Amino acid sequence: MTDKINELLRRVEEFKPKAAAEIEDFRIKILGKKGELNALLEEFKSVAPELKRELGQKINHLKSVATERINTLREQMQQAAADAPETEDMSRPGSAEELGSRHPISLVKNQIVEVFSRLGYTVAEGPEIEDDWHVFSALNFPPEHPARDMQDTFFVEKNPDILLRTHTSSIQVRTMEHQKPPIRVICPGRVFRNEAISYRAHCIFHQIEGLYIDEGVSFADLKQSLLYFAKEIFGEQTAIRMRPSYFPFTEPSAEVDVSCNLCGGKGCPVCKGTGWLEIMGCGMVDPNVLKANGIDPEKYSGFAFGMGIERIAMLKYGVKDLRLYFENDVRFLHQFDTAL
Ligand code: DAH
User: Fold this and answer.
1) Average pLDDT for residues 102-121, to the nearest whole number?
2) Could you tell me if 130 and 159 are in contact, meaning their C-beta atoms sit under 8 angstroms apart?
3) How far apart are CA 211 and CA 303, in angstroms?
4) Disulfide check for 185: which of 7, 12, 83, 124 has CB 3.0–4.6 Å away?
């Protein structure tokens, strides 16, 4: 048995691992439950009593030498790994974080708000889930007006009084509720209409509404404000024209066109040969609307206008399909990185 112990001791002392895994294998082989040391202890049980003391000491010595050797080898191996030369090339340039870009609708919205804020307008907002009063009744829509119809409006559950706003004109009403004239607000927001989705229509889109009420506000003020706006957004050379139109909440009402910035007014496929592009509706606030909202139409007058942000962005950036704004394909969105 002494020979066996000495032989094992020699193997422990001579053990030279090349990798960390070899140390663990060796430990299991020698000190593991079914390892060689335990086999020796098993054999030790049947050793003659007079030899027990000497052999016992030898086995204990073997065990502590083996444990110590394994621990030392482990530490050496760890130290060697820590001291190994860097495999990373520290001089390589870092990879930059990709920055996102602003959505074109936000860009155009911010530009429009900025232009009107220079004219003294402040931003007003309102809820997307509205009631009939703020979207229709207070804006002089007669009860049988088709815009109230199921085909245009999303109603919330079965209650015809609660609906998703179909235009930002509802914010006019909310503003008049809280503010006395002079009022000068610009109201961006999301609107909802029950429309089939195509390249030129969507059931969700964005509008900006403007409202100006004070003593002596005239149609000339409206026209000059919109001309200023058109030049700021589409360029100094831009002209506007106004065509008579109808909206329940304005009288008189007009549709506003800008000169086509692609062909300079000569006529091209985008403006369908007319040289003009329609951008918004506007008019003088109907006295009925002022009255419904507690403002004296004998004393005050005002104008209002409303436009689709998608439409302005399409004309400004030459986007041909409205659906691109909602799909959020980064190849589309990244084109506007520099549009800030
Ligand atoms: N609310 C109208 C629409 O959604 C747009 C509009 C037209 C707003 C004329 C106005 C306005 O304030 O005066 O089509």
Assistant:
1) 96
2) no
3) 6
4) 124
Each residue's pLDDT tens digit, 152-161: 899 987 888 9
Q: What is the pLDDT of residue 89?
A: 82
For the record, the structure tokens of 252 come out as 């008189």
Tell me if 169 sits within 8 A of 306, measured CB to CB: yes
Average pLDDT over residues 241-262: 94
Asked if residues 327 and 319 have their Cβ atoms less than 8 Å apart, the reply is: no
Burial of 30 (0-12, 13-18, 19+ CB in 10 A): buried
Which tokens hold the place of 321?
């399909």
Q: Which of the listed residues 184, 247, 250, 307 should we mutate to test ligand 1's pocket, taking the one with most ligand atoms within 8 A of CB?
A: 247
Q: Is the CB of 309 under 6 A from ligand 1?
A: no
List of long-range contacts for 296-302, beta carbons under 8 Å, 24+ apart: 299/215, 300/181, 300/213, 300/214, 300/215, 300/217, 301/213, 301/214, 301/215, 301/216, 301/217, 301/218, 302/181, 302/183, 302/211, 302/212, 302/213, 302/214, 302/217
> How many A from CA of 78 to the centre of ligand 1?
75
Q: Looking at residues 271-286, what average pLDDT do you find?
A: 94
Confidence of residue 338 (pLDDT cuts 50, 70, 90): low
d(CA 136, CA 280): 19
- Listed in order, strand segments (DSSP E) in 260-332 are 276-285, 301-308
**Residue 147 burial by CB count (10 A; 0-12/13-18/19+): exposed, middle or buried?**
middle
Distance, in Å, from the CA atom of 165 to the CA atom of 135, rounded to the nearest integer, reads 6
Mean pLDDT for 191-203 is 91
